[in-house]
Amino acid sequence: MRVFRILSVLVIILVGAYALSMYYFVDESKSFTIEKEIDYPVEKVFSQFNNLQNFTRWNNFFSSSPSIDIDYYTPYEGQGSSISYVDPKNETDGEMFIRYENPGKTLRYQLFEDRNENPTLVDVKFKSLSPQKTSITWRVHTPKLSLFRRVENFWTEDRFADNIDKSMAKLKNVLGNKVEKDNQLASIKYDSIMVEKDESQLLLGVNVSASNKKDALYKNIVMNYNKVYNYVTMDLGKKDDEFGYAVLITDADNYKDKEVSYFIGIPLSNKTGVTDNNFSFRTINATENYVMYYKGTYAGRVKAIQQLIQQAKKDEMRSGDIRQMFIERPLDDQEVNMKLSLSVYK
């Protein structure tokens, strides 16, 4: 009995000491500022923040959990837009609102977590440092915590900073693919041979052998494109603005063969876990290419490929594989819009 009393007194003393230390030395709420820079223009960056459908794709708070379920409410962007979320695996839920917007300059978010009546307030300021660089500043004010929960404030800022670091990496991937697609579409000049240098790429796709009779090859390409696209978007959970255009790689002159072997894949920023053995990764090394944009029937691409091969021979260049990048999704019984790239070297 005496031991029990002593332990009870010790517990009371420890609890009291904890409560006093929390009361005098730890703030009931926390405010801090985090600044980052990103190499994209402010108008493209801002649209990723004020549209909550865009925001949840790359923000690590929402995108890191495969079990999270998000509902979006109109308006879907700008002041007044909101979402609610439930994550059964992590046993969390909440709501998020955009309470204020100064287009291209500032946003104010309110985040209510786990039925907490007091929100986390996040003010985000955007500043153009140059036509291709933007400064982003987060000013965060956390809700008041009870005396016995104030210890959480010791790691709140670190946790928030880690989330922003991971989010910025994902945002760079999203904007990189989006800007690249926009630039390619804006610069298209059909049926002219150009010289370009391509950086290395990582593709996830399938190796295929198919008949080259009539339309059989193109139908096979459409089928395997859909197979790869569905795996990347559904099984891997990637969004369209997280990856680039699909690329088909094959021998430059195999259009004359009865059977054609090719690899068709979608570029990803890094390797992810692939559980289906039908899919594999392939790295394309940086190369110099003779390039031609082509639009028409898939069979009609042969003439464009021949022009690229003839130009390489004329310039006394050796040639390698031909890459067919589908700028528009290939569909049955429709014309293709593609970029043909013949790798060349001395």
Automatic annotation (TrEMBL):
Query: SUPFAM superfamilies under this entry?
Result: Bet v1-like (SSF55961)
- Sorted alphabetically, which Pfam families does this protein's record hold? AHSA1
UniProt keywords, alphabetically? Membrane, Transmembrane, Transmembrane helix
Q: Which residues cross the membrane?
A: 6-26
- Keyword Ligase attributed: no
The keyword Ribosomal protein is annotated on this UniProt entry = no
Domain (Activator of Hsp90 ATPase homologue 1/2-like C-terminal) ranges: 39-175
**Similarity annotation:** Belongs to the AHA1 family.
Q: Give the protein's recorded name.
A: Activator of Hsp90 ATPase homologue 1/2-like C-terminal domain-containing protein
What's the source species for this entry?
Chryseobacterium camelliae
